[in-house]
Please model this.
Amino acid sequence: MAIKDLASKNKRIRRTPEEARRLILEAAETGMAAGGPAGLRLETVAKAAGVSHPTILHHFGSREGLIQALNLRTVEQLRTVLIDVLGSSPQSSENAITPIFAAYRNGLAQRMVWLMQSGSLVMGPAGLPMLDEMVLALHALRERLAGPGVQVDIADTRAIVHLTTFAAFGDAILGKRLRRAPTPAEEIAQQQSFENWFGEFLNVYMSRKG
Amino acid sequence: MAIKDLASKNKRIRRTPEEARRLILEAAETGMAAGGPAGLRLETVAKAAGVSHPTILHHFGSREGLIQALNLRTVEQLRTVLIDVLGSSPQSSENAITPIFAAYRNGLAQRMVWLMQSGSLVMGPAGLPMLDEMVLALHALRERLAGPGVQVDIADTRAIVHLTTFAAFGDAILGKRLRRAPTPAEEIAQQQSFENWFGEFLNVYMSRKG
DNA sequence: CCTATTATATACAATATTGTCAATAATGAG
DNA sequence: CTCATTATTGACAATATTGTATATAATAGG
Model:
């Protein structure tokens, strides 16, 4: 105990509340990989964040409060990603696909699963309305490309957005198991191959449907 | 306690091991809806199955054993569904879609998520090879439809199967949140609408690609 | 510098959860 | 019927987990 006294001689690090919350949320996000929200343990998260578990309770009130904060974070991330994709380069539908797949693969899909599993405490019955913006933006693009006087069905556009979401989401969750690539390099190659194929797929469809 | 003695006077029901396992697995499957594998509690499952929790441990060895048995069941269900779809009516790719969507929506997608969350203890690194059969079957169909001498790319067929899987899977997990239908009837209508759209989508693509 | 605020940590309480053990009762075989 | 087998269970043990209480130290404002 003498050693401990000398080594960690009461050196508390006092963070700002925002910083502490951020640290804890990030630790929870990565650490929740095994088990989802039901598998989240305060002690585990605390250790990963470098704090004690009562500190988590101090900042989030309860375990449930932490999970709700995580869900809010996920919804925000989804919104940010989508807005980012829309704002970057909506020249064609094809080159918008790669960043979408990348974002979902980068943990977003996994977090969306957790969000669904936690019950709709955050979103309420409202669902995921941020996709609506995407539908409207793509629809405007399609009408522009179709030229004046040509009618484009918005239900069709909505279906395309939904399918793209399902493709990116499903690929992120199931893709690796379906592909069974022998090497990481091969896995990446097959990922890109599927993305490109899907982009072409969309183009084939849209060029025929307008 | 006199009441209890009269009411439940030592009336144990002794099931066959198979029946007991089946009861427990079914209870676990439905009861796991909230939380996934990490949220599975022996006491909860036992109560739903109408047994005491040591009975579960007797039949499955441990909580982990129960989860593995559940995963095995999921893999079997997936295989059964796919074989069923293949064997029923592979006249065109379009009319095979409805039963696939129905199966995934019927809890299979949710169980696949749990399967992924439990780590690949059951499948090993092998992934989900049962989809390969589907690829081969659809490929044979496409070659038949394309007529003699026409080359059909099997990578293309594989991508179609993957996309269909992602569509059915994603729709089962996210569909309701994306649609936000006001009534259950409307929800079903929108489900079918999307399925039909996707079937047409596939046809538009395949009729151009062969 | 002095003080109020509060983020942090240790110790503890209360409960939940998995797993063990021994007793018991249902069933089938002889 | 008798008996061995074993599915079942209540009681218990051991640990895990969330949440509370209290003390303390870091920081900001005077």
